[in-house]
Amino acid sequence: MDVQTPDLNPANYHIWSHCSYGNFTRSTPLDLHIKNVAMTSCYRLKTLGHWVHGSLPKGHMQITTVMAREAPTTMTKSDRMVSTYGLDHSFKVIIPKKEAWLNSEKLPLPSDSSVVYTDGSCSTGKTGAGVYIESFGHSESVPLGIHTSIFQAGVYAVSYA
What is the pLDDT of residues 6-21, one digit of tens each? Predict the structure, then answer.
């Protein structure tokens, strides 16, 4: 079996990975890998609102200048949704047995309850959320643009209801 040994010259450091065949293969150069991790971390912190801007980019803060030059879309607003927990909703999910579904039986709901249907969908590149409240006969659809995922639209529909 022919095993390649890594180049130990510091100017040529690369990330080496061990393949299933026993050979070492060269992947992304170390400097590019570190730059990628730094840019990804910076972007994540920025979208979550945790990135603190200094008056002048110095040291590690220069990554924002590099991102603006090499990946300008990272400087635009993001549609990333920050996780929040709203525990003030009092609701109960009732999942009937299979037999009730097959027999199309109505569920015995408490008198003060409402049946609400929600949906997130995407069509022709545009995403939207829909809500239907059965007891009021009220339906609502909310366009969410082109940068929202179907999952985000579904979560928005549930929170909108």
Answer: 444 444 544 454 444 4
